[in-house]
Amino acid sequence: MTVTPASLVRATSSQKRRNRWRALRPWFFLAPLLLLNLVVIITPSLLSVRYAFTEWTGIGPARYIGLANFQEMLADPVFYRALWNNVRWTLIFLTVPVMMGLLGASLLSSIRRGQILFRTLYFIPYVIASVVNAYIWKLILNPVFGIGPWLAERGIPWLDIRFFARTDTSLYAVAFVDNWHFWGFLVVLYLAAMHAVDPELYEAARIEGANRWHEFWHVTLPGIRPTLVFTLLMIMIWSFLVFDYIYLLTGGGPAHSSEVLATLTYSTAFYSLRVGYATAIALTMTLFSAIFIGMFVLLRRLGWEI
Amino acid sequence: MRHKTQSLQSLSWLLVVVLMLAGCAAPTAPGAQPGAVSGDAVAKTKIVWWTEEVEPELQEAFQEQFVGAFNQAHPDIELEVIFQQNLNDVLRTAIQAGEGPDIVQTPGPGFLLEYQRAGLVLPLNEFAAQYGWKDKILPWAYASGTLGGTLYGLPLTFESMILLYNTRVFQDLGLTPPTNRAEFEATAAALQNAGLLVISYGNVGWQPTNEHLIGIYLNAFAGSDAVYEGLIGKRSWEDELFAGAIDLLTKDMTVNGYFAGSLENYYSFDWQTMFSTLASGKAGMMTIGTWGFRGAAEYFADNPNEWDWAMLPSFREGVPQGFDLAVGSTVSINAASKNPEAVAKVLDFLFNDPSRAARIAQIFSFGEFVVPIEFDAEDFPSDVDPRIARFLTEFADVTAEGRYGYTTWTFWPAEAETQLWKDIELVWAGEMSIAEYLAKHQSLWEKARAENAVPPIPER
């Protein structure tokens, strides 16, 4: 076979075309998904920014009112209460389930027999629909037929408390139910990350005289740091979007005691028919999520392995 | 092999293109398929109606007794009823986009007003004259769909607040349903002394339940004349009569423990707990809307004769007992409908035969699809519960005498209504004074009036 300059040029340009096609091919396959995202997520999101500056019932034309919605929001005590509840919710979920998840994963990692069983048991509440979980806990804590009155009739009155109905306990009660379904998910994530930590590091630590706590603090935690930081970031974002369990269990009440930004947005849009104002509230949720994502990006740029 | 890979690639591309084209296909406009329905020789006009999701057996009965009957009576029209979850949200999006069904079903006159202001529903005056709807429908209910002198919606379901009670408990304690405040307090004391709850009621699962109680107290204490004056702007909501009503409700809720025994219990009782408690005789009464007939039928299934209903008591001397008016849902014609004449025939089919209307309402245990027309005793099927038949005939008679009040979800503008049931919890928690609560309410009414967003108030 003779190689001529012309055939070489042809082969090179054909190779270039193939390379270009190879580079473009994934985009063609991604195109439908991107298009879908553009239509159902990006466009409505951008449009909603516009509605935050309008008075709109959700039906018919919107009326531009400038910054009035934001001014009203910043003067609304219910908004601040909802925002504060979101902050409390975030603090609860950054600590309680994370600690439970780390503890559960750490204990499970040393178990060889039956680990799968425990992982499955912990994970089950996570795969059950929130509406079902909420219903289960409503039944358990029912004021007439629940476990509290049942125990009270048998001389144990301390659980006969309306946890969802008291202004001082409602948010914690809902957080408890949400945590009940959520922490098993963290166990599975942390356990998978712990399995990836080099066993030789533990061996070296033990030779150096490390006890279980030292191993956890100096080997496990640094080893699972990317997973840990990622879950913390996701918890912060999810905590500002939380809606389902609160809506299902208390509706934000009583007296706004468990109100969060998402439930306030919902009732403002769908009960008060003030979609423009609700959008302004919703934008603050987006703002907080953007701040958390910005923090994540910044930490990566600073060289954190996350 | 290479050929096979290429074929596979080509197939993948074809699939992507087909999916994209399918996604971009234009949706069908309401009533836009007037062509021949498959298998039919006659060209039929198709009418689509989205309504609230109900249990499958109720859907089946409705399809058979209403849709089937309509389609049989109108060979040139095919009515299709689709039961939708979250109807209001889904419908609003579709209608806003110029799509959606031919029949627009809203949760009440306040929502109808929004559709009308946006020009999304058709005026019905011509059809009303053609079919004589004004003579068929109870006047107050007909007026609730009339905006600025033009009819835009017809009442699909009417409701009222009533007092359900456990007849066995009442018999055992020698009680009769209270008609005034003194009797109510005596009944409450007798029930509490017997270790029972006075009223089994709670707001779990539906926080706006609070407004049921607010409406009852406003009408029963301040009086429906005063409420009417508040609605038309002749009396401020900060008036001492309204403050007295809210004060009485707050005391009954937080001090007297009339509702579920305590405020905490009230915030913990759901539908199931409310009815189980009443049916098991652990409570004597329940203040609920007529949709509660469904619950009574279900939870008293083992002892069906142990419940009955009564008119709510008056809470102040000089205020007569009456029924509070409520329109639970309305129906209109979508402005984008291609066949308004055919849609009007469907609407008329809801009202033109009282015995059919009674049969349809019976499917839903008279909780839904109870059209506000004047029923006579002979209109009811032989197996209809006589207590419900009594309500329907008595309601028409009493309201015709002018003894009626107003429910918040029918006659209040949306934002003021929401403030009423949301902020009352702050009042009950002691975080907001009644004066602050009513002052905020008054300001929201002023805002609604300025924006022309007050639902129609039938002249008294």
Helix content of chain B: 40-55%
- Which structural class is indicated by helix and strand composition of chain B? alpha/beta
Structural class of chain A: mainly alpha
Shape of chain A: flat
Features:
heterodimer, A: 306 residues, mainly alpha, MetI-like fold, two-stranded antiparallel sheet, 2 strands, B: alpha/beta, four-stranded mixed beta sheet, disordered N terminus
Question: In a few lines, what is going on in this structure?
Answer:
With 306 residues, chain A is mainly α.
Describe the structure.
The complex is a heterodimer of chains A (306) and B (460). Chain A is mainly α and 306 residues long. Chain A folds into two domains: 1-44; 70-301, MetI-like (MetI-like fold, Orthogonal Bundle), CATH 1.10.3720. Chain A has helices spanning 5-51, 68-74, 77-109, 115-127, 130-140, 147-153, 170-195, 199-207, 212-223, 225-241, 244-249, 261-270, 275-301, and strands at 54-55, 63-64. Chain A has a two-stranded antiparallel sheet. In chain A, helix 2 (68-74) packs across helix 13 (275-301), helix 4 crosses helix 7 and helix 12 packs antiparallel against helix 13. The radius of gyration of chain A is 26 Å and the shape is flat. Chain A starts with a helix and ends in a 5-residue tail after the last helix. The model of chain A has no long low-confidence stretch (mean pLDDT 91). Chain B has 460 residues and is α/β, with parallel strands linked by helices. Chain B contains 21 helices and twelve strands. In chain B, strands 3, 6, 11 and 12 form a four-stranded mixed sheet that branches. A four-stranded mixed sheet of chain B has the order 8-9-7-10. In chain B, strands 1-2 form a two-stranded parallel sheet. In chain B, strand 1 (45-52), helix 2 (56-73) and strand 2 form a beta-alpha-beta unit. In chain B, helix 10 crosses helix 11, helix 10 crosses helix 20 and helix 20 runs antiparallel to helix 21 (434-450). The longest helix of chain B has 23 residues, at 2-24. Chain B is globular, with a radius of gyration of 25 Å. Chain B starts with a helix and ends in a 10-residue tail after the last helix. Mean pLDDT of chain B is 89; it is low at 1-5 and 10-39. At the A-B interface, helix 1 of A face helix 1, helix 3, helix 4, helix 13 and helix 14 of B.
